[in-house]
Amino acid sequence: MRCSRTRAGLTGMMVSVAVLAACDRPIGPRERFLDPALVAQGKEIFRFDTFGDEKFWTDTLRMHEVIQQSVTPAVALSVGLKVDADALPAEVKAALAAGQVDLNSTATTLALLRLNAVLGVKGEVQTLGGRDTLVRVGITCALCHSTVDNSFAPGIGSRQDGWANTTLNPGAIVALSPALTPAQKAVYNSWGPGLYDPRFNFDGLSTPLVLPPAYGLLGVDKETFTAEGPVSYWNAYVAVTQMHGQGNFSDPRLGVEIIQTPDLVTPKLAALREYQLSLRKPPPPPGSFDVAAATRGEALFEGEAGCASCHAGSLLTDVNAGILHAPSETGMDPRYAARTTQKAYRTTPLRGLWQHPPYFHDGSAATLGEVVEHYNRVRALGLTEQQKRDLVEYLKSL
Predict the structure, then answer these.
(1) In the prediction, which pLDDT does 32 show?
(2) Domain boundary among 224, 248, 280
(3) Do 104 and 210 belong to one domain?
(4) Number of neighbouring beta carbons within 10 Å of residue 386
(5) DSSP state at residue 179
(6) Does 151 share its domain with 235?
(7) How many angstroms from the chain centroid is the CA of residue 319?
(8) Which of 212, 222, 198, 205 is nearest to 163 (CA)?
(9) Could you tell me the residue range of the domain that residue 312 belongs to?
(10) Are residues 247 and 296 in the same domain?
(11) Cβ of 105: how many Cβ atoms within 10 Å?
(12) Tens-digit pLDDT profile for residues 355-386
């Protein structure tokens, strides 16, 4: 099976590791163009396509019941869900600004779902017996990998696609389901904001990962923390095995083979990838770092500190050279790597670091200062306090 790069997207019934690797082959200098039609199509998929996962979120987890009964906008915002202000009519914005909208009413939640204004959540609201009723609900990529600029109010603003939603608490959201056991709920509630375990439903273990940004991916060969596959591999894995969309995913290394008809995922992977590759990393806010210190930090990064030996080239990663690192090399917790096919971690491309703390795959460093302290200790760098500060300022500038 080969990858078709036509606008029809990927062909065939089965999405295998080999096919996805072929589709996301390294992008050479002459290939750094993006198809505007595919980008536009992928934008709609990223924001609004559930891949048919309503069957899981509605029929299995019964989240429509939970939302209908107890998820007010205030509750939704408290667990990191975001509202797209640009999807709200002017009269609704005016009422919100005037404090005339009841944020403690589930009826308001249903109204927002009718407007398709909750990032990453798609709900079908019908009027039954004179009462608005949520009959189906599903999720999209934007749930975890988009946020808002808070331009209207905290948690309400214009979309920022590709930004890691660091305040989203996906475990706490899933734990609201009445279909889960107390033991399952305890695990989900243990993760906290900005963290999610993409293996828990397979092996029952829990070593949650930081939700990564989906911007700045152009040219990066392997996008997972453990380099199991490229962008489309991860999209297919998440869409089928985590979002529980209706599609095909196969990775013999993991012992996973899921075939569903019709396949609502595979035909959309090419466009979804194109949109993600179009998302550029956000520049640091003006005045957010010391330019002189960052310049000194860059020299340290590339020289004495030795960071550039792994964070190499313009992409700041050696993964494109096929290099992975054992947890012991960098002092990382080995537990998640042990649950994967590679048993190692790839060097994370450093992009928009100011936007998505905490750091490392498991969020074990709350600040960039802690990142520098970690490597100063593990790699015995012997950095002075000034050098550590300079490195932090450089990292804030990326």
Answers:
(1) 58
(2) 280
(3) yes
(4) 10
(5) T
(6) yes
(7) 19
(8) 212
(9) 291-396
(10) no
(11) 13
(12) 999 999 999 999 999 999 999 999 999 999 99
* Claim to verify: residue 251 and residue 374 sit in the same structural domain: no
Neighbours of 203 (CB within 10 A): 10
**Is it true that the peptide bond before 283 is cis, omega within 30 degrees of 0?**
no
In a domain, 32, yes or no: yes
Number of domains in the chain: 2
pLDDT above 80 (res 19): no
Residue type, 224: T
Helices 269-278 and 36-48 cross at an angle (nearest 10°) of 100
3-class DSSP state of 383: coil
Q: Structure pTM?
A: 0.91
Contacts of 75 (CB under 8 A, 6+ apart): none
Q: Residue 286 falls within a domain, yes or no?
A: no
Amino acid identity of residue 335, one-letter, is R
**Are 273 and 24 a contacting pair, CB within 8 Å?**
yes
Distance CA 108, CA 10 (A): 40
Token pair 């200098």 is found at 29
Residue type, 321: A
Contacts of 386 (CB under 8 A, 6+ apart): none
Q: Which of 229, 208, 207 is nearest to 220 (CA)?
A: 229
Instruction: Say which CATH number the domain at 300 has.
Output: 1.10.760.10
- CB 120, CB 140: distance < 8 Å: yes
Q: How far apart are CA 242 and CA 248, in angstroms?
A: 13
| Cα–Cα distance for residue pair 248/226, rounded to 1 Å | 22
Tell me: do 206 and 346 sit in the same domain: no
Q: Is 50 exceeded by the pLDDT of residue 284?
A: yes
Strand boundaries in 45-180, DSSP class E = 83-84, 121-128, 131-139, 146-148, 156-157, 159-161
Tokens 């012992």 correspond to what residue? Answer: 255
Confidence at 33, pLDDT banded by 50, 70, 90: confident
First to last CA, the chain: 39
> Is residue 111 classed exposed, middle or buried when 0-12, 13-18 and 19+ CB atoms within 10 A define those classes?
middle
Same domain as 298, residue 275:
no
Give the span between the Cα atoms of 286 and 30, in whole angstroms. 33
Eight-state DSSP code of residue 42 = H
Can you read off the two tokens belonging to residue 228? 């199991």
